[in-house]
Design brief:
The protein is mainly α and 673 residues long. The chain has helices at residues 8-21, 38-54, 58-68, 71-74, 76-93, 96-116, 121-128, 144-147, 150-166, 173-192, 199-205, 228-237, 242-251, 256-266, 271-285, 301-306, 357-367, 397-400, 426-431, 439-442, 451-466, 470-480, 484-487, 489-505, 509-526, 531-538, 548-552, 555-569, 576-595, 607-610, 621-631, 637-640, 664-672, and strands spanning 25-27, 404-406. The protein has a domain at 70-166. Residues 42-98, 454-511 form the CTLH domain.
Length: 673
């Protein structure tokens, strides 16, 4: 499972879209703030209505409906549910004044609605009158269900479902994708009868109780029959009964993909946990500045899980919706990416997130530090001046400031929640004022550096790799840890492949052959599984051109592999979100193999892009898998397998390079010379 491949560039694009859509980040590359999308505005309204109803404040919710969604109050089916809940909440308060208000609510609001809301409404009206007789604490009473606080969450979920569709306030694509993948992951392991290795994460992230489905209008009860294929696809995708799928299609007026989105958004994520995971990933990938504490100013998800403090159970969104960074009060004016592109979170308006992928990546890498930090040596004899490409970059300060800043989640209707730094560690608090790596720290060795400094080192090496500067990467890593490539020979082989192809592209064939003879050949001699990738690499000599490097090696994927391995070496674990994506994408693939049909919704949710193989890897699956155990990288073993891309039909993606047009003896001669 951990060997499953993920296209991290595609995930970066989805994460950036999510963060922009939810106004979680500020962009210091932009000089002027921008307005949020209407979808984001409506999602905030829905969130506040949900909080009001879950708190039992029905009047506040009705006031919000009146201002932002009056069509809800025009629907007597929904108005009856609201007035019935208001009646119960007035009685729950227990004072004589509130009891009088409850009677007035019955006479002026609830009874009139009961006459024409729906056929069963009048019977429900008579039944709820028993609340006058039975106490709210009597669990054996006929109206115990009416008294239950769970009813608050049910009506809040129902209203959210209706509002989401009418206001077109769908969640960002990444949020829906994560829900879908986790739900399939849970079903897969349940059917297999085994426990998922990420069960603690999935239980904490995806809440057990979904929102109630929105009922279709009465005019849709006589809708024409739907395509049975659509009914079955929807039912299997989101675990509905056949009748449930039909009702969902009725509410969506027969639109399969809208019905699917409606059902996905009914699944509830713990927002604070999601924000923690996204923030951790963004810092790790260099999307946001690493000099900030965790987004909630609390214990991070990783720390919580390590402390075994995860307590699965029903979770109220009002306790998890509006979490902000513990340094929020110190941040500058809000600057978002919304001025550059309009993202309202709905797949309809984000028709091609991946079309933004290259642009987003270019903006991000342009805004990232070119860090190349000097002096990564663990050797006391190493002098900072010996480092060539991580040298004298002002320690990344100016470039790092161009990264996006984590803004955190705001309640824009009620102001910014109270902010506290009590949950921030001393290391995290000091990180905000860190301006770069100190020369004196460099002489202490990498493992003694602050967390902030370690991030800059890892991101600097990642950036070098992304730029194809393989020789410089090898030099810096060897300076930092001479034993690194002895433990990670596959990564060294891949870097030398990049160096070889870069020299071929520049026309330096002699230099390319020297790399092959001095490095690639000896590595193959130690592991004959690398022989085929070597031969395919040498084929670049037959077609020298400027695209040899681009066609031959996916630099961003290799950069991620290097980042994870180097990060683990100096004490930076890969983000939990990376682990979740590997596991859930793997089970998605396995699940549809068992079902023996193609997922009709994977394109809508960009799952196909997360698995996409758009370049040829020169290290085959078999080679990587044969070397995983010997590399002793723990969780970073998966980075070796990030090169294990196969095409959808299972064929070898390297087959375009597999024509053996060179004499094998000549190739072997190059290897041993």
């Amino acid at each position: 499972m951990d060997s499953a491949h993920v296209n991290w560039e595609a995930l970066d694009a989805l994460i950036i879209d999510f963060a922009k859509s939810e106004n979680l980040i500020e962009d210091s590359c932009s000089s002027s703030p921008s307005l949020s999308s209407s979808s984001y505005h409506f999602r905030l309204i829905i969130r506040q209505i949900r909080q009001s109803l879950e708190a039992g404040n029905v009047d506040a919710a009705i006031d919000l409906f009146r201002r932002h969604a009056p069509f809800i109050l025009d629907d007597h089916r929904l108005l009856f549910r609201l007035q019935k809940q208001k009646f119960i909440e007035l009685l729950r308060r227990g004072t004589a004044e509130d009891r009088d208000s409850a009677i007035d609510c019955l006479r002026t609001s609830l009874a009139p609605c009961a006459l024409d809301a729906y056929p069963e409404a009048y019977e429900e009206f008579k039944h709820v009158l028993l609340a006058f007789v039975y106490d709210k604490d009597d669990q054996t009473s006929p109206v115990a269900n009416e008294w239950a606080e769970r009813r608050r969450f049910e009506i809040a979920g129902l209203m959210s479902s209706v509002l989401r569709v009418h206001l077109h306030a769908y969640d960002p694509v990444f949020s829906m994708t994560l829900r879908y993948l986790i739900s399939i992951h849970k079903v897969f392991f349940f059917r297999q009868g085994i426990v998922s290795p990420i069960s603690d994460l999935t239980k904490r992230l995806l809440l057990e109780e979904p929102d109630l489905p929105a009922a279709p209008p009465e005019s849709m009860y006589e809708a024409p029959p739907f395509d049975e294929n659509d009914i079955q696809a929807l039912a299997h995708a989101v675990e509905l009964t056949r009748q449930g799928a039909i009702d969902s299609l009725r509410f969506a007026k027969g639109d399969l993909f809208q019905a699917f989105q409606n059902e996905l958004c009914r699944m509830r994520l713990d927002i604070s946990t999601l924000d923690e995971l996204v923030h951790e990933y963004c810092v790790y990938r260099g999307i946001v500045d690493s000099g900030l504490a965790s987004p909630s100013g609390r214990q991070t998800v990783s720390e919580t899980l390590k402390a075994n403090q995860v307590e699965p159970g029903y979770c109220s969104s009002r306790n998890s919706s509006f979490e902000v960074d513990c340094n929020e009060a110190k941040q500058l004016d809000v600057e978002t990416f919304m001025s550059n592109a309009k993202f309202d979170g709905s797949p309809e308006n984000n028709t091609d997130v991946t079309s933004q992928q290259v642009g987003d990546a270019e903006v991000r890498y342009a805004c990232e530090s070119a860090i190349k930090i000097e002096g990564c040596s663990t050797s006391e004899s190493h002098q900072p001046g010996n480092s060539t490409y991580l040298k004298n970059k002002a320690h990344g300060t100016g470039e790092r400031n161009k990264r996006k800043r984590w803004r955190g989640r705001h309640d824009e209707f009620g102001g910014t929640p109270d902010v506290s730094c009590m949950g921030c560690s001393k290391e995290e608090r000091s990180a905000t004022s860190t301006t770069g790596i100190n020369i004196s720290k460099e002489r202490q060795g990498v493992k003694n550096l602050d967390r902030e400094d370690k991030y800059q080192i890892v991101l600097g090496i990642k950036e070098l790799t992304s730029e194809g500067m393989a020789a410089e990467v090898v030099e810096e890593i060897n300076t930092m840890d001479p034993k690194f490539f002895l433990q990670n020979p596959i990564l060294l082989f891949q870097l030398k492949q990049v160096e070889f192809l870069k020299l071929v592209s520049s026309g330096d064939h002699s230099g390319a052959l020297r790399v092959a003879c001095s490095h690639l050949g000896p590595l193959v001699a130690k592991d004959l599984a690398l022989l085929k990738p070597l031969k395919e690499t040498l084929l670049a000599l037959l077609q020298p051109n400027e695209d040899a490097l681009r066609r031959g090696m996916p630099l961003h994927a290799l950069a991620t592999s290097i980042q994870v391995a180097v990060g683990k070496k100096i004490g930076i674990d890969e983000p939990l979100l990376m682990r979740i994506m590997r596991a859930t994408l793997h089970t998605h693939t396995e699940w549809f193999k068992l079902q023996m049909y193609k997922d009709r919704f994977e394109k809508l949710l960009r799952i196909d892009l997360l698995k996409e193989n758009n370049v040829a890897f020169l290290v085959s699956d078999a080679t990587l898998k044969s070397n995983v155990d010997g590399c002793n990288l723990g969780s970073s073993q998966v980075t070796l397998s990030s090169s294990t891309w196969t095409s959808e039909d299972g064929s070898n993606p390297n087959q375009s390079f597999s024509i053996d047009v060179c004499d094998e003896n000549a190739i072997l001669k190059v290897m041993v010379s």
